[in-house]
Structure formats: C-alpha cells, structure tokens
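Issue: ligand-bound run for uridine 5'-triphosphate - logging full I/O for the record.

Environment: standard queue, default settings, no custom constraints.

Inputs:
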Amino acid sequence: MLVSKAVIPVAGLGTRLNPATKELPKEMLPVFTNSPNGEVCLKPLVQLIFENLHSFGIKEFCFIIGRGKRVIEDHFTQDPGFLQILRARGRDKSASDLKRFYDRLESSKIVWVNQPEQRGFGEAVLRGRPVVSGGGFLVHAGDTYIISKNHEYLTHLVNEYQRLSADAVLLLKEVSNPSQYGVAEVERIGGDMLRVLSVVEKPQRPQTNLAIMPIYIFDPVIFKALENTRPDRGGELQLTDAIQKLIEWNLKVYAIRLRADEVWLDIGNPEMYWDALSTSYSRAKTPT
Ligand code: UTP
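Outputs:
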C-alpha cells in the first residue's frame, strides 16, 4: 500500500479531562466496541485506533509519547503470563481477544518517540520525522476515532492522496460549533473532492462550519512546513498553521468530507467523552 506508516501523537496533557487524566493517559480511556464474537466490550481508545489502522493495512506506527504516558507503552507490550492467567480462569474469549491484539503487535513495527515538553500537536508530529521520512504517511490523533464500515474514510483519503499526487489530504466534517476546531475554506473540484483554500485554528469568526478532523495524509513536506511555522500565542505549534503554510507555498492541499453514516468519536472534554461513550455503546449493542 502507498501509505503504510502512521504517526499517532499521544503525549498531550489532557488538561480538559483532569483529574481523570492526571495519572491515566486520556488515550487509555475506554469506549465501547464489539469483540470478534460480537459481545459488547470496553477498549482503550488508542488500542481501537491501532487495531483499526492495522486492519486497514498500516503496519508501521510511530507513537509520540511523554512523561506519565508509559502505561500506553506497557499496554502495547505483550504479556504472555497474563494470557495464561486468563485461560487458567476460564476467560477464554477475553484471552483470545487479547491474543489477537498481541498478534497484531507482532506483525507491526512500533517506534516510541518522546516529546519532552507538550508544545502542541504540530510539534508532536514533527518529532515523528526520523521514523516516517521517505513517503506519504498518516497522522491520527490519539483521542479521536471514526466508526466506519470497511475503513471507507481511510481508503478515500489514501486514494485521493495518490490520484492527485497531493501534499496533504484532510478529512472535514460539518459542525455547529466550528470555532472550537481547525476550520477549512474549500472549493469543489469535481465529484466530492475539495481543494482547500485556507485553514485557521480555532477562529473567532469561522468562515465555514467545516471542522478539520485530526486524521490526515501528508507528504513529508509537512515537516518542512512545521519547521517554518511559529508557535501560537500559547506557545503551541499547531499542525493547522503548518497546513496553511503548505497552501501559501502553493502546494496541493485537498480534502474529503466524512460521510453521514461515519461516526466521529472525540474524547477531548467531559461532554465529548460522555457522547463518545453513549454513541459507542448504542453502536456496539446494535451494530449496523
Ligand atoms: P489535544 O489538542 O486534545 O491536547 O491533543 P491535549 O494536551 O491532549 O488535551 P488538553 O487540551 O490539555 O485537554 C490532541 C492529540 O494530540 C496529542 C494528544 O495526546 C492527543 O492525542 N498531543 C497534543 C501531543 O501528543 N502533544 C502535544 O503537545 C499536544
């Protein structure tokens, strides 16, 4: 596959979810899903993201991690003794689910890169450079998940990246409160493909209601753009500002929209987490 590497930043402080995330990484918070035998189960969001990308065909992962986040690394370290305990206690289904996760780990290359200071999503992505250099790669935030049949949004992103020889392909969704997100201005260029004219991070007066989902495909030129982007007033390097830089450099930035039947889960703040729990539970109870 053309895009076989992913950078997944999981180093953020998760301050909006304090005190729950003081010691527990936000990305380890669980949402509901189905185990392979169809039962409802709870799974850490970051495991769900990894398994989804792995089944799509991504096999090289670069997690950007920080202090207090080692539990994620532990979760992604195989534990044969625990598997034995589960089996000895008759928890065979649970053991086989865990074994399936471990098999996926076994068939992946995973690199852990430290972000010593939490200087923003963009700075976290920049730290992935030595691991993913050389071709197109996916960036996926660790606190977002899209429920989609057959990875449609991922297939669409990768296909358009290839077809248009793009420098970046973004995933957009119409929202009622765009000023909380990165927002894109676009023009239609045929079919459901969009050319991105400008992007702004959390604008006070958004020009559109198209929020940028934190899942992207980039050419490595994004690293150059990040290096040439200044941190925002809060001292954070924003990926959205680097995307704007690509646009100013007349590079090819395109976007697709999330389809109506694809469900976006975000666990960034308490209300969103509640929504993610209730939506994922309904979906797991009655899978479509
Ligand atoms: P957020 O933008 O939600 O930031 O991160 P945050 O720091 O985790 O949370 P708040 O705003 O303090 O509540 C989006 C994704 O980017 C990662 C986070 O771990 C999350 O997966 N991130 C963010 C980093 O890896 N490093 C950063 O410096 C910031």
